[in-house]
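Supplementary Methods S3. Complex input for the manganese (II) ion-bound model.
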Amino acid sequence: MIAPDQILSHNQAQAPEHHTRLQYTEGVLERKGFNPAQIIAQIRAFQIAIPSWALGSGGTRFGRFSIGGEPSNLEEKIEDVGLIHQLNRSANSISLHIPWDIPKDVPALKQLLHHHGLTIDSVNSNTFQDQKDQVHSYKFGSLCHTEAAVRQQAITHNIQCVEYGKQLDSKTLTVWLADGSNFPGQHHFRQAYQRTAESLTAIYQAMPEDWTMLIEYKPYEPNFYSMIIPDWGTSYSFCQSIGKNAQVLVDLGHHLPNTNIEQIVSRLMHFGRLGGFHFNGSMYGDDDLTTGSIKPYQLFLIFHELVDGMSDPEVKNPNIAWMIDASHNTKDPIEDLLQSVNGILSAYTRALLVDRVALSQAQEDNDVVKAEEILRDAFLTDVRPLVAEAMRLAGGAIDPIALFRSAQVRAGLIEKRGKFSTATGL
Ligand code: RM4
Ligand code: MN
Ligand code: MN
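Predicted complex, serialized as structure tokens:
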């Protein structure tokens, strides 16, 4: 949708300022013993999946404000992700939510994905809403339900998601359960856990061997007294009993305020069970805000643990699926996603700049101040020129949001799709 020469002329206009800043940053890093070219190559290799359900305006239970030009089918969602990827070259896949994104013309979809240089990341099941024509209701749960027929319907839906995923070469099923209870006494906790374990096992056994099941946890909402999988410990225990390809998924917004998420990440990697990430920003709960907008230091500390785990040969953790899971109530979804990808890459880059040898020595020496200062030094480095350079070298824009605006992409989408088109999703 953006002509390649638009990217070129944007980059040419940005070049003088960009190169001045880049040279300065590279010089600082070199004096510290880092190899800037290697760091830029690592940023370039880091790819983040965009959720199909975040391309339209989100909303709250009070209302929703349309942005216009929203994608109204899977093809248009793929086009939007293609556009994001064209601008930043860092978002080469898309996560699907079934039944919001049921693939129809599979060969045509594959061609479209190929055209945009995209793949399908994970397929997400939905047993948190009742669909029309559905026989049994999920009002009182899905995989944990007291009635076998309801559980079976939810199991069948998850297996169907895997079937859709297979058609589009995905290899990951993400399960997030809204199951839980709103009032004391409503659930027999142990029995509800056991029924869920059996349902998850049935789904897992129906998956091909090279597939991964990601199990997400969330402390509250939509149920407010208890959730069937409220925390990482419960996810982990399901994974342990289900099989080696069952992994925990950490959604940054799914923690109670002030939870030490970086420690959770480190524990899960130590156990070899961290399989996926849902990035977003959170002030209070599942706020689904722009990644890095509220607590950038926390995001950096999380990446510090991730990079540490990924670079330690002792850690036997599988590859982690990086995804955004957000909702945009006031911003243009594409701009918000561009900001989020940038926030993620910036935190990752800063984590790459931690002097791990010195940190390890400071930890051994119990030098608390030194250890903290090493982290702060990396966190306070201005990494923006490095991220921009990675995008430029990969064929993207030095400033994706500026180009999105100057090319008037949203106006073009409104003209093409209309002012009132709505995306499927929440
Ligand atoms: C949930 C959870 C899931 C997402 C749904 C839409 O809170 O984060 O990952 O699929 O929202
Ligand atoms: Mn999520
Ligand atoms: Mn969520």
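The two ends are 26 Å apart (CA to CA). The chain has a mean pLDDT of 97.
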